[in-house]
């Protein structure tokens, strides 16, 4: 507005003789006053100048406006106190007694102390006009005082909005259960929400955490490098935001997994981060579940060894290492011999204990750096790493065989198993993981086939045999459809009389390109593919039609025995009509067929097998135990089932001579079988001496090349009529 008073007020009285000079002075003063006035009215701040007595001497229009004071009041030279009372009365400070007091003190202090120290001071207050003003008071040495008023309403409002927003997002983030952090990157000071501290068990008293770098000290040392990398990636702009999972130490010393996510919200002129905010989510439970799932996916729960998946991973690593370092690798597949028998007869608990002990023994034979894995069931795999040319691989294999051959003490039971080991070498035999596994598997089967308790190395011939098996599998499907199978009959001779009332049905496969294929070669494939069910059914139907014809034409009591694999019992097709029923439908008694089973089947403790055996018995079909002596050979087992015939395996008959162990064995089997009410058939009788020894030992029947090879039905009829004459 205006400088108070006139130019005359600013000047002192002057003598008459200097009137001209005075006028000039006056003019210059007036000019200065005008200048001052226009300066004062042009600035955005309000100004009040008080004299040493605390009265307003100068003010500008902006001061009137900002303080909402009438110009007339200021023009009347009011004192600081008068102005304050006016404002208090008007209610500028509301009910805020503290503000009133502060204002009053500043007014007094401003006047009283300003003169001495000349220090400026300022404070903020709110006027009735709803404005927020920043007030600066400058005390001058002569006791006067300049007070300026700046309108900071917008600034304060902006700050308030900002704070409200921050409170809002903090609240929003925290309501999700997450903790919130706010990091002033360059000063290093970090603020944490209550929730964040709570998650980790800290509280407000742990202020030390806010200092530079303190929180990073809580990060698990194994996780820190990765965290710093993730953070730097975001700082440098390689990642849009920061996100990392790491362990953080709680106040009680335990660790929690945290998912930390954040973003830089302000940067300096150089682009360096100034402030970063983010959240911490407690993912401990999820992490634990993940670890558990990973464990389950990679380790065998029983033995704690890596499982097939993990073996695969390790194998990939080891192959890489071997390639780099130029070492050989050996891959071993180990299968326990006779494990199934132990498991079936002693129960799964004993079986489990045996597996754990076997795992321990295998591990004891190899170095820490080698991998031992459980492939499932009683199969283990080993990767022997860093094999040098002169490595004593065979020594390790021998050691393993010996370790597994030693007695297993399972509670009350002393059990013996052994192992068949297949070995393949990298890079000699193959370089791909799957090929190495396949090789080791094939070699293991060779070891098994060669009589178990031994190891066998992979060879190219094995490879060919395996490929052959694959081809046969495919062809086998065609075999049935295209009627490539035939059934031959081998007579079973009553030793005492030489009479023939029985025959065994034996299948043959006439392959269109490979010629005659032995059942020993294709039955195992048919068993493993399940095709054996259909093939077995077909053989049974051929045999029953044959026995029907022969009973009519040759011998009303004729009996044909049919081989039935364990796989046929286990995979009995639902639609298949029971054999006894099929016979009945043909008008045949059950006794026209004998079913040949093997010992392994009797070890299958499942109710289904027992039921099917019972079903045969109830239908009048007799049961013959084939290949006796090659398996578990426990006659006590036979007591539990209704077995009618025991067939002594050809391996006992082959070297049968007087005073041999084999003869003693045959005699023992015959005596025991008779004691249990069973008849005995000797297989593989090729010489008259074998026949005579068996007959002398009381063996009931003989079957073998001495009498006849398996022959076609028409030839069989010729054979019978030739014998009768
Ligand atoms: P298996 O049931 O023990 O049959 C006896 C095997 O010994 C037959 O072999 C027979 O030809 C052979 N053999 C008979 N007498 C002599 C002899 O004096 N000396 C020698 N060295 N061998 C003799 P084959 O026909 O090759 O059958 C082999 C095996 O295949 C059978 O052994 C049986 O386990 C299985 N098999 C054959 N036909 C069938 C079938 O239709 N179904 C099922 N599931 N298995 C079958
Ligand atoms: Mg047989
Ligand atoms: Mg046999």
Give a quick rundown of the structure.
The chain has 725 residues and is α+β, with helices and mostly antiparallel strands. The protein is built from 27 helices and 26 strands. The strands form five sheets. The protein has an eight-stranded mixed beta barrel, surrounded by six helices. Strands 2-1-5-4-3 form a five-stranded antiparallel sheet.
Can you walk me through this structure?
The protein is an alpha+beta fold and 725 residues long. It is 46% helix and 23% strand. It contains 27 helices and 26 strands. The strands form five sheets. Strands 18-19-21-22-23-24-25-26 form an eight-stranded mixed β-barrel, surrounded by six helices. Strand 16, helix 15 and strand 17 form a beta-alpha-beta unit. Helix 12 runs antiparallel to helix 13. The radius of gyration is 52 Å and the shape is rod-shaped. The N terminus is likely disordered. Bound molecules: ligand C2E and magnesium ion (2 copies). The site of one magnesium ion (MG) has 4 residues, from loops. Ligand C2E binds next to strand 19, helix 17, helix 18 and strand 23.
């Amino acid at each position: 507005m205006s400088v108070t008073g006139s130019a005359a007020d600013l000047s002192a009285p002057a003598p008459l003789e200097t009137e001209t000079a005075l006028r000039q002075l006056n003019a210059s003063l007036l000019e200065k006053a005008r200048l001052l006035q226009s300066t004062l009215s042009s600035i955005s701040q309000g100004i009040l100048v008080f004299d040493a007595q605390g009265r307003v001497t100068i003010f500008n229009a902006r001061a009137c406006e900002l303080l909402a004071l009438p110009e007339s009041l200021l023009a009347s030279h009011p004192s600081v106190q008068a102005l304050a009372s006016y404002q208090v009365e008007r209610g500028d400070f509301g009910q805020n007694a503290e503000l009133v007091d502060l204002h009053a003190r500043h007014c007094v202090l401003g006047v009283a102390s300003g003169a001495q120290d000349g220090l400026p001071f300022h404070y903020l207050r709110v006027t009735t006009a709803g404005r927020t003003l920043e007030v600066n008071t400058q005390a001058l040495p002569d006791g006067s005082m300049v007070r300026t008023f700046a309108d900071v309403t917008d600034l304060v409002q902006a700050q308030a909005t900002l704070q409200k927003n921050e409170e809002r997002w903090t609240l929003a983030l925290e309501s999700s259960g997450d903790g919130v952090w706010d990091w002033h990157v360059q000063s290093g000071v970090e603020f944490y929400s209550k929730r964040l501290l709570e998650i980790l068990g800290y509280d407000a008293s742990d202020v030390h955490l806010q200092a530079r770098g303190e929180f990073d000290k809580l990060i698990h040392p194994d996780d820190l490098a990765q965290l710093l990398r993730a953070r730097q990636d975001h700082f440098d702009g390689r990642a849009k935001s920061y996100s990392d999972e790491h362990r953080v130490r709680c106040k009680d010393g335990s660790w929690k997994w945290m998912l930390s996510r954040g973003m830089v919200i302000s940067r300096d002129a150089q682009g360096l981060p100034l402030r970063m905010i983010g959240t911490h989510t407690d993912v401990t439970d999820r992490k634990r579940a993940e670890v558990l799932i990973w464990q389950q996916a990679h380790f065998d729960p029983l033995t704690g060894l890596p499982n097939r998946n993990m073996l695969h991973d390790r194998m990939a690593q080891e192959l890489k290492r071997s390639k780099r370092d130029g070492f050989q690798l050996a891959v071993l597949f180990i299968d326990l011999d006779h494990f199934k028998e132990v498991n079936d007869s002693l129960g799964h608990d004993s079986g489990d204990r045996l597996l754990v002990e076997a795992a321990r023994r295998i591990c004891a034979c190899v170095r820490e750096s080698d991998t031992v894995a459980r492939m499932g069931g009683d199969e283990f795999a080993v990767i022997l790493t860093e094999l040098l040319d002169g490595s004593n691989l065979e020594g390790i294999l021998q050691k393993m065989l010996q370790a597994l051959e030693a007695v297993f003490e399972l509670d009350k039971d002393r059990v013996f198993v052994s192992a068949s080991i297949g070995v393949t070498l990298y890079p000699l035999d193959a370089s791909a993981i799957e090929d190495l596994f396949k090789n080791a598997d094939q070699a293991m089967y060779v070891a098994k086939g060669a009589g178990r308790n031994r190891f066998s190395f992979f060879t190219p011939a094995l490879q060919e045999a395996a490929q052959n098996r694959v081809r046969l599998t495919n062809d086998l499907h065609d075999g049935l459809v295209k009627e490539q199978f035939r059934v031959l009959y081998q007579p079973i001779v009553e030793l005492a009389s030489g009479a023939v009332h029985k025959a065994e049905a034996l299948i043959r496969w006439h392959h269109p390109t490979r010629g005659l294929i032995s059942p020993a070669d294709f039955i195992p494939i048919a068993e493993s593919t399940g095709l054996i069910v259909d093939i077995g059914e077909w053989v049974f139907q051929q045999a029953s039609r044959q026995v029907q014809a022969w009973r009519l034409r040759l011998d009303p009591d004729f009996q044909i025995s049919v081989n039935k694999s364990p796989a046929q019992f286990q995979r009995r097709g639902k639609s298949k009509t029971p054999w006894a029923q099929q016979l009945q439908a043909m008008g045949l008694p059950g006794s026209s067929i004998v079913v040949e089973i093997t010992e392994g089947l009797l070890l299958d403790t499942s109710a289904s097998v027992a039921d099917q055996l019972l079903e045969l018995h109830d239908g009048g079909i007799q049961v013959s135990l084939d290949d006796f002596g090659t398996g578990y050979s426990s006659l006590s087992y036979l007591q539990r089932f209704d077995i009618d015939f025991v067939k002594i395996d050809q391996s006992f008959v082959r070297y049968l001579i007087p005073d041999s162990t084999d003869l003693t064995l045959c005699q023992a089997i015959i005596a025991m079988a008779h004691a249990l009410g069973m008849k005995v058939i000797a297989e593989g009788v090729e010489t008259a001496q074998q026949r005579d020894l068996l007959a002398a030992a009381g063996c009931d029947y003989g079957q073998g090349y001495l009498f006849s090879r398996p022959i076609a039905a028409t030839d069989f009829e010729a054979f019978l009529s030739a014998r009768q004459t």
